[in-house]
Design goal:
The chain is an all-alpha fold and about 130 residues long. The chain is built from seven helices and no strands. It has a domain of about 80 residues.
Length: about 130
């Protein structure tokens, strides 16, 4: 039997992931670079996956992952564009958290890892299999 995603649950998942992601950035000097910078990027992608799940409660897990990955890649590649108006937004805390500041291939890899983790979490742990 197919299920529909519970928006309250996905909202909670998103908040928890944001907290974990922000926490990973709070103690970077105590961790090796790979553990201080990159988990936050993977958490960002998982959060995108949960936002997609929150917005589109009936799409398949695979479609949610594809949308999340494409959105994450779009945001990352948008960092190659620099105009005063968008750089002003990026220099705010919220703008930096959402839009980032500089393009990185490592971030793209982190997005693949993060969305994959969201996919596996949904598919095998909470077993949501919405219809498309």
């Amino acid at each position: 039997m197919n299920k529909v995603r519970d928006r309250k649950l996905y909202f909670i998942f998103g908040i928890v992931v944001v907290i974990i992601g922000l926490a990973s950035r709070k103690v970077p000097s105590h961790l090796p670079l790979i553990l201080s910078k990159y988990p936050g990027d993977a958490m960002w992608a998982i959060m995108v996956f949960f936002v997609v799940g929150f917005l589109f409660t009936t799409i398949t897990t695979k479609k949610a992952a594809i949308i999340s990955l494409l959105f994450s890649f779009l945001i990352e590649t948008s960092q190659l564009y620099h105009a005063p108006w968008i750089d002003t937004i990026r220099h705010t805390i919220l703008g930096a958290l959402i839009l980032g500041s500089g393009f990185s291939w490592y971030d793209m890899c982190c997005y693949v890892v993060g969305v994959s983790m969201g996919f596996l979490f949904e598919k095998y742990l909470i077993k949501i299999h919405p219809t498309s």
